[in-house]
Specification:
The chain has 182 residues and is mainly α. It is 47% helix and 0% strand. It is globular. The chain binds iron/sulfur cluster (2 copies). Residues 24-84 form the 4Fe-4S ferredoxin-type domain.
């Protein structure tokens, strides 16, 4: 890949610092973060590379890609970093910046809408029916009672999340046939 440093965005690192990645300049590219990352081996998400790209101001190399959304936020990189450079916090900051630019993968928009309307990141109807079928006790969850969902919606409505995460009032869940619970 050809990288033209003259085209870099020097604002990116400042924005990352402003949005929570204030220790990013401590990164000395040792790679300890990547060595423990559970998704690095199977996906395009490479945390050491992302740290370097931010420091170089390569915003298009980061924000136009989906890889920052593949981080599971397990905090392993943060635990392992000998410099306390906060790689997970840098990922959070990049996601905030990306969301402000309207760049969010469809899967994240779906999760946000699920939480807003159902109280869950994924639909759980199939699992509830299965519990009922095998005689398992009723499961009380955030989505079991409308008052909990109302509370979730009130909180989200008070933040910028509603707009940033493209939550829709008339959104319909895709259903258990599409998401999890098998
Ligand atoms: S974030 Fe920490 S662990 Fe990762 S490359 Fe930088 S200094 Fe090393
Ligand atoms: S927090 Fe994200 S980047 Fe860090 S180790 Fe976990 S999955 Fe990898």
């Amino acid at each position: 890949m050809k990288i033209v440093l003259n085209d870099t965005n020097e604002e990116l690192v400042n924005k990352v610092i402003q949005y929570g990645g204030e220790n990013i300049y401590k990164c000395f590219q040792c790679g300890m973060c990547a060595s423990g990352c559970p998704v690095a081996g199977d996906t395009d998400h490479k945390i050491k590379r992302t740290m370097h790209q931010v420091l170089l101001g390569l915003d298009e190399q980061i924000l136009d890609k989906k890889s920052i959304w593949l981080c599971t936020t397990c905090f392993m990189c943060l635990e392992r970093c000998p410099q306390n450079a906060g790689p997970t916090e840098v990922i959070f900051a990049l996601r905030r910046i990306s969301a402000e630019k309207g760049i969010i993968p469809d899967a994240q928009i779906e999760v946000a809408n699920n939480i807003y309307h159902l109280g869950h990141a994924v639909t759980v109807e199939k699992g509830i029916k299965l519990r009922d079928k095998v005689g398992a006790p009723v499961l009380n969850t955030a989505g079991s009672d409308k008052k909990h969902i109302d509370e979730i919606q009130r909180i989200i409505n008070l933040t910028k999340s509603f707009k940033l995460l493209k939550i829709k009032k008339d959104w319909k869940p895709k259903g258990d046939e599409v998401i999890a619970c098998d």
